[in-house]
Amino acid sequence: MTHIKNYNLKKVGAEIGLDIDTMEMLLEEFINVMDEEILNLSRSVADSEPEFIKHYAHKMKGAAANMMVDELCALCSEMQNADKNDKALTTRLLTEIESCYGEFKSLIKH
Question: What is the tally of structural domains in the chain?
């Protein structure tokens, strides 16, 4: 199971050259997008829709990469490249993605 060790919005902003106000705005948008995309990915896994699984995993990977949430990005990449016909694998990866994202959200709320 992947765990997010730490996340510092100010530090990430400094790395990519954005002020904290801009980063807070981007973080809010990131959370809105990820909340929706996780639901979409979950439905796609439940319905065994390989193309949609790949599509949503790719979108989530890009969003996580832009916000430098490396652990989540890696899991989404793994889902994107996984055998989408392996229901046990996609279900396990979905659980890990949901868990990792949940950890991220609880980290940033403190």
Answer: 1
Q: For residue 44, what is the domain's CATH number? A: 1.20.120.160
> Maximum Cα–Cα distance for the chain, whole Å?
43
Tell me the pTM: 0.92
Residue 44: the pLDDT is 97
Q: H or E element: which one contains 104?
A: helix 87-108
Range of the domain at 52: 19-108
pLDDT for 1 equals: 58
- pLDDT averaged over every residue in the chain: 94
Q: How many residues does the chain have?
A: 110
